[in-house]
Prior knowledge:
Mean pLDDT: 84
CATH architecture of the largest domain: 2-Layer Sandwich
Largest sheet: 5 strands, antiparallel
Oligomer: single chain
CATH topology of the largest domain: Beta-Lactamase
Order of helices and strands: HHEEHHEEEHHEHHEEHEEEHE
Number of domains: 2
Amino acid sequence: MKILKAAMDALGFDSILTHLSALVALVDADGTLVDWNPSFGAYSGNLQKAEKLFDLVDEEQRSRLEKLLRPSKRGVRRGRLALRSGTDGQTVSYACLAFALPQGRFLFIAEIAEGDRASARENRKLREELSDISMRLKKKNVELNAVIAQAEEVTHIDTLTYLVNRRQILKLLQTEVKRSDRYKAPFSISMIDIDHFKNINDTLGHTRGDKVLIQVAKMLRRVVREADSLGRYGGEEFLMLLPNTRLKEAAGQAARLCKYVRESEIPVGKKVHLTVSIGIAEYKQGKESWQDLLNRADKAMYVAKNAGRDRWAASE
């Protein structure tokens, strides 16, 4: 039960897992058994032949189990099942609880439904035990989801400049293209490249070169509008998405940005003056893909570089 124990250890339930008399199993959405506690293993007998939780129920009980293993808004489902023993094939009625976990898995908990043999106190103890586990798992589930959300956010961020990275800015580009097609709204992009950046690395070293990139990213953040998106496209290149913006407006912004960078001093141990070359393009709705738009902006940027740098060029 290594997988289940590791998960329960992380949630602080290791002692409960080992000593709980209830049957506890970690299952996938399709009922596949991933791991289980000693009580579940002892009851099921030869688990090598039981690959899914459905192997422990008769056909008439299958629909009940399928219903139990469905996500719910409350995150937990309760039910009663007749489970078949792995040793003698007999069925026993169990009170069951399925708690939804991340990645589509469930924590399945079952305790024997004593019926006429159980005392009211034993039944009450079971309900309290299951309720306590449910509440604690809900709390841990919230914490786990928060950690997962933070991890996903980190995968979208460039670790040097803290702008969105190439993968995320391209994903946003695709979204904006679809939005432009749907609402017939204008959309432009700017491809920004730091001029002669190789010389900065060669003369000042890569450490200061990284500091230059960080400072340029901060400068770009200051001029980007709230509705715009900015990301590090790669190396010393940045991509800016300009929703609801015509080519003329994008050109005006590019001109102001060239002037702003040209007149700024970047402190990286010594004062550095930079320039940028910018290629802009307006999306042709229904006539090109997002890749075509990106290629046009990239070619326009090289037109600006070949024309002397420290300027912008547009792809008509």
